[in-house]
Amino acid sequence: MIKQLRIKDYILIDELTANFHEGLNVITGETGSGKSILINAIDLVFAPRVSKEVIKTGKEKAVIELTVENRRHNVEKFFAENGVDYYGTEIVILKEITPNNVRTRVNGTLVNQDFIRHLKNLFLDIHSQHQTYSFMQPKSHIILLDNYAKDCYGEKLNHYKECYKHYQELKNQLETLKTAADTTESQLDFLKFQINEIESAEIQSDSEDTDLQAELEVLENAEKLKELTGTSYWAINGDDGSIMEALGKIKQNVSKAASYDDKLTPIEQCLIDAIENLREVGSDLRDYSQKLDNDTERLNNIQERLYLLDKLKRKYGGTLESVLKTYDDLSKELSAIEFSTQNIDELETQIAEAEKQLAAMADEISENRSNYAKVLSSLVQDKLEKLELPKARFEIAIKPKELSSDGVDDVEFMISTNVSEELKPLAKVASGGEISRVMLAIKSIFAQSDDINTVIFDEIDTGISGKASQSVADEIVDLAKYHQIILITHQAIIASKADKHFYVRKSQNNETQVEVYVLTGENRIKALAELAGGDINEQSIEFAKSLLG
């Protein structure tokens, strides 16, 4: 359950801390006071995207910290796999929003959105106006039914979905093979020509052209290189006036001087090393010069080879690396075509068998769905009677459809709120108050089997009053036996059932601010009186006291 919510510099809130009770937590306040800010802040902690507009004007960042007490779920392994510390029953989730970034930390460790989405699915169920809209759409009805019956056929459905995924992969493979098999003879001939053209070139490596270009540069300048290296050699080792001759004389002088002063010995050694190094340089220059040859045939061969490689590069991507990659791609394409003509029949047999198995599984799941649809329909109808819709009829209609990822059933919630009307789709019949009660009825039924810790309702009492309010209040109290409930309400009857009552007030002095108070004693009585009658007077005060018993 949610133990604590801390907010700093968020929208109209400077700083607040709200500690929630494990039972029923009610939030009230005047219209426009900002009651939804608390619920929105909780939802924002788990949101994948957050607008920087939530940062309070003039502040650098907004911070929302949520402390959750975990009593029902074994998450130690999940935390360990994601490198997040787990200290026991308390989990601290921190959302920091800056103009340039949004970071989410769990127990101090940065986490990704997949991790935080998993936590939300474990701990929190938020019912807002947007979710009411989603709830009314037929595509969500099959999900609700399957979630209710997950203990019965959930594993079968998951296995079916895996098999259906494989079935789709087989169909995609078949489509690819058939497309390849439809390749015309001329296209096939051109494909083989391209492969042969690259293959016959026998490219040595993706750097062959640069290696040959370097060799060509040497061959084209062989005479110049021979002259330069030969001249340099003779300058070092010539018979008269060479560098070696001059160094020899210098060495003699330094050696003689070193015999008088051993401080010159290191210099003498450096000179000896220099002479030896220069002798090696001269030897290398001589060898290089002697090996140079005007190999006209090799020159012509390289030029022809580079011409061929340039031609291939122009056709197949600009570099030899691209040419070789193109060759691999074309070869795979040809193999696929040759493979396709041999394997289409085999693949069609596999698909037919997979479809047969899927149909059998889907029929079994469909039978389970039909049985549980009757059970859930009956439970919802009983709840609706308790919620002051005694004439309502609720039915989960199941119609056959083509084999799909969730089976062969179209599921839609049908309702009639008047005895004279036929059952019609939920979205086309129910009013706001009726939708709220249908939603509450289903939530109540699911509450007894799911492991969600906290259920949040944003104005579940929309469109109801009088006796219906009392029924909704009783149902919410019942629901709070299984879950922590946090809800916004405008109904005094519902608010009077709270284990903890929060009051939201907006003040506008130099700036607009939202403040949250926990109501007790006389303050709570006054708040209930204001909800009940609009004004605080003797009559509304007495009514508020009667609600509190």
Explained architecture:
- The protein has 549 residues and is α/β, with parallel strands linked by helices.
- Among the domains are: 1-127 and 451-549, 3-Layer(aba) Sandwich (Rossmann fold), CATH 3.40.50; 207-318.
- The chain has 19 helices and 15 strands.
- The protein has helices at 36-45, 76-81, 113-123, 129-136, 138-148, 150-181, 185-201, 208-220, 222-237, 243-260, 265-291, 296-316, 320-386, 426-429, 432-447, 466-479, 492-495, 521-533, 538-548; strands at residues 2-10, 13-19, 24-29, 62-69, 90-97, 102-106, 109-110, 124-127, 393-404, 407-416, 424-425, 454-458, 484-488, 500-508, 512-519.
- The strands form three sheets. Strands 2-1-4-5-6-7 form a six-stranded antiparallel β-sheet, covered by helices on one side. Strands 8-12-13-3-14-15 form a six-stranded mixed β-sheet.
- The model has no long low-confidence stretch (mean pLDDT 87).
Low-confidence stretches: none
Strand content: 15-25%
Query: Percentage of helical residues?
Result: 55-70%
Query: What does the largest sheet look like?
Result: 6 strands, antiparallel
C-alpha Rg (nearest Å): 42 Å
- Averaging pLDDT over every residue, what do you get? 87
| Number of DSSP E strands | 15
Number of helices: 19
CATH fold name of the domain at 1-127 and 451-549, please?
A: Rossmann fold
List the helices and strands and how they pair.
Elements: E1 2-10, E2 13-19, E3 24-29, H1 36-45, E4 62-69, H2 76-81, E5 90-97, E6 102-106, E7 109-110, H3 113-123, E8 124-127, H4 129-136, H5 138-148, H6 150-181, H7 185-201, H8 208-220, H9 222-237, H10 243-260, H11 265-291, H12 296-316, H13 320-386, E9 393-404, E10 407-416, E11 424-425, H14 426-429, H15 432-447, E12 454-458, H16 466-479, E13 484-488, H17 492-495, E14 500-508, E15 512-519, H18 521-533, H19 538-548
Parallel strand pairs: 3-13, 3-14, 8-12, 12-13
Antiparallel strand pairs: 1-2, 1-4, 4-5, 5-6, 6-7, 9-10, 10-11, 14-15
